[in-house]
Amino acid sequence: MIDMSPNLVLVVTIGVLFAAGVYLLLERSLSRVLIGVILVGNGANLLFLVAGGAAGRPPIVGSGQGPMSDPLPQAMVLTAIVITLGMTAFLLALAYRSWQLNRHDEVQDDVEDRRIARLAGRDERATTDSDTEGFGESLDDEAAEARDEADRGSA
Amino acid sequence: MNWVVPLPVVIPLFAAGLALALYRRPNVQRLVSVSALSLVLAASITLLVLADEGPLVVEVGDWAAPVGINLVADRLSSLMLTISAAVTLCVLLYSLAQGQQDDEESAPVSIYHPTYLVLTAGVANAFLSGDLFNIYVGFEILLAASYVLITLGGSGDRIRAGTVYIVVALLSSVLFLVAIAMIYAACGTVNLAQLALRLPEIDPGVRLVLQVMLLLAFAIKAAVFPLSAWLPDSYPTAPAPVTAVFAGLLTKVGVYAIIRTQTLLFPGGQLDDVLMWAALATMVIGILGAVAQDDIKRLLSFTLVSHIGYMVFGIALSTQAGYSASIYYVVHHITVQTALFLVVGLVERAGGSTSLTRLGGLAKAAPVLAILFFVPAMNLAGIPPLSGFLGKVGLLEAGVQQGTPLTYILVAGGVVTSLLTLYALVKAWNKAFWQTPSEVRPPVRLPFGMVAPTAALVGVGLLLTFAAGPLYGYTDRAAASLQARTPYVDAVLPDGHRGEGKSADASPDEGSHG
Fold it and tell me: Do the interacting molecules here have an ipTM over 0.85?
């Protein structure tokens, strides 16, 4: 039976990385979000290492006495690191582009929903069209005035 | 015929490289992309036919299954592949015509083609993968491509919208990655078939945590209600074809992943009640959002969120009828939602705006466009003869079959949502097509190259109606094998431990420790 109790130092490190990462992810500035993503990503990578079992066993079959260390989590961590690297590069480019355009890299709000909420708050119409406003005093007046389009030519 | 299985992943990736190398010659690029996606469509249809006999398994590099990566094409994945290949091809043709009409700014062709091809490869990889980590890689491939596509051109709007999209997507990827790490720690494997054998043996509490983690990660991608706020903010600013393909496919990849993991890894439905409530909230809140919108692209984005609720409802039922109707609904919704977004691209071109206040009189100005909008709009709302109706009836039937109070609430919610969808779309129709326009615009000739692919997609939507019988038969069989689980597991691990790859004759206990 392999000893599966995880290394406490690694577990605490993962916790700290995740906590700091989540805190940074909640920030507005994209460069802080970026650092948050990196921290959380590295936390996940460490989690994989812990999942792979205890350290100290040989990495290659047949070199040493006991069983070899599990190579699969390491392969997965490598893949994840490469992916995180690519995403980091893209986010950096995005933050730079945002700085180029706005002179800051803050994630802005989408105003459309707020506009609709404000209209609803003031109980206003979003749109006005030909059906919105009547032209007569009462509906009866309007009905008396109303003509079919076809009548207009002869009238 | 197993060699067909990797083609939907391999062809677009090779073509992407080729298209990137040919960036100076846009004509050759076009040829490469179109022929690559046509080949993918042909391969997917072949798989669709072949997979009806039983799942096809390919072990990449001939490494035996639990350790090596394998691709599995069963009924569900090949059906998803076929419909996504058809949709991506139509959208590509549409964007080609748009690229020819417009300037480079709206669709920079040189980077568009390779990225688009990578996106389709990622989608195919996610559908075909028989390995949780490979699904993650598929997701990352398609997401990385989608990051580029959503910020295409780098204008202020798109950067703003893209930032929200990218940060949320990254977060869901990290969740997924953590879930995979925890699953590996618990089970010592990430192979789906082996997980199906091992997960029932672990502690139920741990299993529940793993299930919740995976569901969270996939629900963000699929835009299920509490996790859907990012979608209507980010999709509408992208170019029309990009929004169309995102709306049609990307959320459905999340739905596919939910179906796959719920059926294969976590049968028994511990979280079905939670999923039901999530489905109800997604349907109702999504459609209420749509009703309030003035911009037609945003309106459609909200209907997209809302209708994800139907699919989640089918999944949450955990019955064969539920899964079957859910799969049919996914297929229907991919085509219809994509078609609608393509039509809206044309509306924007003809009417000069996507605001319902400013649009008007399009029924007279562009009658073809009116028909192209009307058919998928009624289809989405679920007007009787069309496929949207058939999908909804299937779901409602499955819900009534279950017959618990909760499913009746969901059935009622589904009907209300369907009516509200009709209301939102009729409002859009009245304003965009019938309202007297506030300003008279010079008539715009819609390019045939853009109208034809849109019409083709609308036609596919109608085809789903006419072929509903055989299609429902297919999804029934798919749902049956999903529920049985054994066809999938047996195909990947014939003896219960190992695949058929060469490394099978290595040490027999390797890969099974954990």
Answer: no
